[in-house]
Amino acid sequence: MKILHSTTENTWYSIEKVELTPEQLELLNSGTLEEREEISAIIKVGITKTPTKKDSDLAKSLYNANKPTGTFTLIMASINIEDSTGFINYRAEEEHKQLSF
Predict the structure, then answer these.
(1) Which of 15, 31, 62, 67 has the fewest other C-beta atoms within 10 Å?
(2) The dihedral sign for the CA sequence 81, 85, 91, 48
(3) Partner residues linked to 77 by β-bridges
(4) Mean pLDDT of 55-80
(5) Burial group, residue 77, by CB count within 10 angstroms (0-12, 13-18, 19+)
(6) Is 51 helix (H, G, I), strand (E, B) or coil?
(7) With 90 as the cut, is the pLDDT of residue 1 above it?
(8) Where exactly are the structural domains of the chain?
(9) What's the CA angle centered on 81, arms 6 and 49, to 5 degrees?
(10) What angle (nearest 5°) sits at the alpha carbon of residue 7, between those of residues 3 and 13?
(11) pLDDT higher than 90, residue 38
């Protein structure tokens, strides 16, 4: 399943699973503060990926076809580009709303 996310219109990213070694897991659970921070940095770098241009263009197209009309502030959009479904969380008229498609 390929899901792309955006918190800024037309800027997309994917969140990938990060595999840690048993040693890294042990350090994360019981290492020193410095060791835990080092493992956290590895996770942060590995978790967010830039999608291909093709995937990003498809997400933009799906978003633009389904985004709310009128004035709104995007909170987060999440789009499954494999089956063209997703949701858009946004604020309009000082209310939080969600649009699913």
Answers:
(1) 15
(2) negative
(3) 6, 88
(4) 96
(5) buried
(6) coil
(7) no
(8) 3-100
(9) 50
(10) 40
(11) yes
